[in-house]
UniProtKB/TrEMBL annotation:
InterPro entries: Transposase_17, Transposase_17_sf. SMART domains: Y1_Tnp (SM01321). This is Transposase (IS200-like). It comes from Halorhabdus tiamatea SARL4B. One of its GO terms (biological process) is DNA transposition.
Amino acid sequence: MYALQYHFVTVTKYRADILTDERLERVAEVAHEIAEDFEADIKNVDGGTDHVHILFTTKPTTDLTKFINSLKGVTSRRIRQEYPEVKQTLEDAFWQPGYFLVTTGQVSIDVLMDYVENQ
């Protein structure tokens, strides 16, 4: 048995205020699609105009680097394709190169979701 929970945060390139509610919803949809391929389970996606928080669980065998790179790469590509005005602002990439990823320990997912929603 295992309980691997993670809190992932990434910011838009140049901290651009470009994530509308609609775009954040689209990031969440794409994240769920990608998670299926990695046998990960997205618990919550939230954020602000310049960042996103994703809470997820995985199996011990999940390659986290590949998963995060896929999350960032595919969401970047899709958002820039589907919203041409974003591509004009952020031509080469949607996300900053770095990110924050931390295990959440034994904190319940409900407590984490409340934390993320109230950021």
